[in-house]
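Handoff note, outgoing to incoming analyst
You'll be picking up this chain. Sequence as last confirmed:
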Amino acid sequence: MTDIKSMNLDELKEYMVSIGEKPFRAKQLYEWMHVHLAASYDEMTNLSKGLREKLEQEAPLVVLTQEDLQISRIDGTRKYLFALPDGNMVESVLMRYEHGNSVCISSQVGCRMGCRFCASTLDGLVRGLEPSEMLDQIYRIQSDIGERVSNVVVMGTGEPMDNYDHLIRFIHMLTDENGLNISQRNLTVSTCGLVPKIYDLAKEDLSITLAISLHASSQEKRQQLMPIANSYDIHEVVKAAADYVKSTGRRVTFEYSLVSGVNDSEEDASQLARLIGDILCHVNLIPVNPIKERDYVQSSHEAVLSFQKKLEKYGINVTIRRELGRDIDGACGQLRRRHMRG
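Most recent structure output, in case you need it:
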């Protein structure tokens, strides 16, 4: 089947001509899908019935179905479980901030990276998402709340860089002036550190924010937490981050999940400061989400504050991530996993 929602405008024009239609129909179709966020061809009233029927037959519209929704009573965070056209499921989260609505989307069904503190990876990787499936998580949420989404983070289930080509196409389509036209500066992509892909991304001429999940201050500790460290040494990851800053002029974010007694000591903070101190960066400290399949415990509030102060003493810009949606299945992979278990 043809996935027209993953096509850019030029490709859509070619496709329309190939099925015997006028090229201008492509612009109408593109607007329906990416501006009006139509959930079916029936909504596309300025297209002839014949064309809509033809498209329904040859290029069924990729639209995700909302299977579940959890809303936090604490802060209004909304966690969605969406069914993909093939029946697989992914999660997306809407977080409301003073600066606007932020959506965290998934890039894969499952994940093969195996990070020890993450629920997304427990059942391995099923497949990467199509650009249309990544886009439609945002479209369905925006349609559901009736408000504009202004920020997007590709930080849900999956390793975005493990689905690289689809990720790059998604970025171009999301930030395209003919579509939702979200600013590239309001888009963050997270990676656990696929070094060659970080170098590739630096050459794409994008102005997105790159977030690197570091979670340790030494190679030895990173290996305990993240199997990817067996492929790429922590110093290689940091070197790639420095190259990204140099190539793009954009500050990188280092994500650091604090696990009690594992990576939250003052010595860890000093070591981290020495490791990344020369890079234009920002450290985002994350109190780890407890998941029942793992025995990691969240660092105490005092330990988190102490870690922050130590980094600041070394002149590193650092924030503690505000914990949203703690009364719902907030951590990546938890809601999907619960549904899979029935």
